[in-house]
Amino acid sequence: MLIADDEPDIRALVGDVLRRADLEVVEAADAEQTLTLWRRHRPEVIVLDHLMPPVSGFDLAEQILGESPEQVIFLFTAFLDTRVFDIPDLVRAHLKPD
User: Fold this and answer.
1) CB-based contacts of 28, cutoff 8 Å, min separation 6
2) pTM surpassing 0.70?
3) Which CA distances in Å does 4 have to 27, 40, 92, 95, 97?
4) Rounded (to 5) percent helix, strand, coil in the chain
5) pLDDT digit string (tens) for 38-97?
6) Residues 65 and 90 sit within 8 Å (Cβ to Cβ)
7) Residue 49's closest CA among 10, 20, 22?
8) What is residue 91's predicted lDDT score, i.e. its pLDDT?
9) How far, in Å, CA of 36 to CA of 87, rounded?
């Protein structure tokens, strides 16, 4: 798993929880590092902070999905960005049919 968050405490907390579940975790502090680590490790899942400057997690997710449409990405934040609902392909790409 790749965790991307500009807040070191949040990154450490999420990483610790996932490591306790015996998952292999790679951590990134910004968008550039996220892309570098994603291309190097090709994790099954990416956990992105939505409000990570200078590029939002939302915009970063779009970039990654543009290169790899099958990539599983979780965006997390304490704030709701309604743009998520305006991009059905971004959401639909990760929904499995019933």
Assistant:
1) 2, 3, 4, 5, 34, 36, 37
2) yes
3) 6, 15, 22, 22, 28
4) 45, 15, 40
5) 999 999 999 998 887 788 888 899 899 999 999 999 888 766 556 655 555 555 555 445
6) yes
7) 10
8) 52
9) 25
